[in-house]
Amino acid sequence: MPELPEVEVTRRGIAPHVEGRSVRAVVMRRSGRRWPCPPDLSELLVGQALRSTGRRGKYLLLRFDHGTLIVHPGMSGHLRILPTGHPPQKHDHFDLEFDDQLMRFTDPRRFGAVLWHANADGDVDGHLLLRALGVEPLGCDDLAQRLHRGTRQRSAAIKQVLLAGDIVVGVGNIYACESLFEAGIHPNTAARRISLPRYVRLAAAIQRILAAAIEQGGSTLRDFIGADGESGYFQQSYFVYDREDEPCRQCGSPVRRIVQGQRSTFYCVRCQK
Ligand SMILES: [Zn+2]
């Protein structure tokens, strides 16, 4: 599943190819399973210039003068830049065509979405899918305080609170496991019992790990293709994730796996309290 770093890597990859370009055609072959077909996008977008790209959590935002196209990769979606006329394959559901290139959205499992939000309906941050999202972790200078303040009444395990995404977005399963290891926090700890100094360490770990993943070009999807067609997959060396029974890189104890909310959590029983 693409996570925040993959979406950010995609955004950085496509930005130079689409920003400032006028849309020549829009082709919607099939819409997502979960989301309704947007209004006639050709009518809305042909002849309009794409002004800038942005991202909120795992949603890619393509901004025009009159609104924003929201692209959600879902479980398996990805975007590529291809030459105009490149023949579509079975799972290529959406194209945004510019003069000599097109941006193609491929989504084998069709859980992704392409949606339109008109400026007339208010700021895009108020969109149904975006308004409940937590803060962006990168560049947030009070992340530890937000985590601390937001969890005083929450007895749920810290790992689950991170995955919920309502305090901070973008900390998916891999990044939650790795951040909690780096901060020395047991994933089952009740969020409200974690002190501010420990949240300071956790916030720093989250920010460092996400920034490193972006730097390395994304990490989780084996067939992730960078926007320029190059492979965006780089094998990261995880401390605990997917390393059940292997020795902890810090203390040598076997890494444990537990299941929380139907997701595997990996941790070190000695390094994380
Ligand atoms: Zn250890």
Parts with pLDDT < 50 across at least 5 consecutive residues? 219-234
Q: For the record, give the distance between the C-alpha atoms at the N and C termini, rounded to a whole number.
A: 29 Å
Cofactors, ions and other ligands in the entry = zinc ion
How much of the polypeptide forms β-strand, as a percent range? Answer: 15-25%
Instruction: Give the rounded overall mean pLDDT.
Output: 90
Instruction: Describe the largest sheet.
Output: 4 strands, antiparallel
SSE string:
HEHEEEEEEEHHHHEE
If strands are numbered along the chain, what order do they take across the biggest sheet?
1-6-7-5
The count of β-strands is: 10
Shape: elongated
CA-atom Rg in angstroms: 20 Å
Oligomer status: single chain
Helix share bin: 10-25%
